[in-house]
Design a protein that fits this description.
Radius of gyration: 17 Å
Shape: globular
Strand order of the largest sheet: 6-7-8-3-9-10
Largest sheet: 6 strands, mixed
Helix content: 25-40%
Order of helices and strands: EEEHEEHEHHHEHEHEE
Number of domains: 1
Oligomer: single chain
Length: 227
């Protein structure tokens, strides 16, 4: 029986035109991630890790190469199709939380369901997601009434609300102190352990990377090592 791949990328190239100069942000990256894996992506500034994250998260498409996410080919999709697969199959957790300041925690978590056109049971699902990250007593608080760690918990609840194929966390502890950062990593790893959620963490912190099962390293747009 073959492996259950949630991500398969082959020979990804991404070119940017900077004036008269062509920049290769990715230069033939190939990788595969199994369903339920916990993987970190590391690399210095300019290594291509943000570009790779944007492609894996369906925020952008490669100039060339093949990318399949949860058995759907992504490379040739138009913007509307990309937005649809992104909403259905990718949960995002960002360093800066990216919450709507005027919405409550419940309202922020409901957003992906609104975009997906879900009406039935929306609030109940959002409450359950907030409960899963230990925030059932803060559902009507707005971001300004929450600590940084609590805001990141809201972001994680929002990321998992659609039961995505992958959760993509970009420096999820970057704006948090070490104690709160440790708590956030525990929540993410518990989601993987309890739900089998595939977790991809983009980080520059070796301590965070060591908590994942596999480290993918990028340098100058190429895969440096994968172990």
């Amino acid at each position: 029986m073959g492996k259950d791949w949630v991500i398969q990328a082959r020979d990804l190239v991404k070119l940017y035109q900077m004036g008269n100069v062509e920049v290769r942000a990715l230069n033939g990256v190939s990788l595969a991630i199994q369903r339920g894996e916990v993987v970190s992506i590391m690399g210095p500034s300019g290594s291509g890790k943000s570009t790779l994250m944007n492609i894996l998260g369906c925020l952008d498409r490669p100039t060339s190469g093949d990318y399949t996410l949860d058995d759907e080919s992504v490379g040739s999709l138009n913007d509307d199709q990309l937005a649809d697969i992104r909403n259905r199959k990718v949960g995002f957790v960002f360093q800066t939380f990216n919450l709507l300041s005027r919405a409550t925690a419940l309202g922020n978590v409901e957003l992906p369901l609104r975009y997906a056109g879900v009406t039935e049971g929306r609030k109940e699902k959002a409450r359950a997601a907030l409960d899963a990250v230990g925030l059932s007593d803060r559902i009507f608080h707005r971001p300004t009434e929450l600590s940084g760690g609590q805001q990141q918990r809201v972001a994680i609840a929002r990321a998992l609300i659609n039961e995505p194929a992958i959760i993509l966390a970009d420096e999820p502890t970057g704006n948090l102190d070490s104690r709160v950062g440790h708590e956030i990593m525990e929540i993410l790893l518990n989601l993987n352990h309890e739900r089998g959620t595939t977790l991809i963490i983009v980080t520059h912190d070796p301590k965070i990377a060591k908590q994942t099962r596999r480290i993918i390293r990028l340098l100058d747009g190429r895969l440096e090592s994968d172990k």
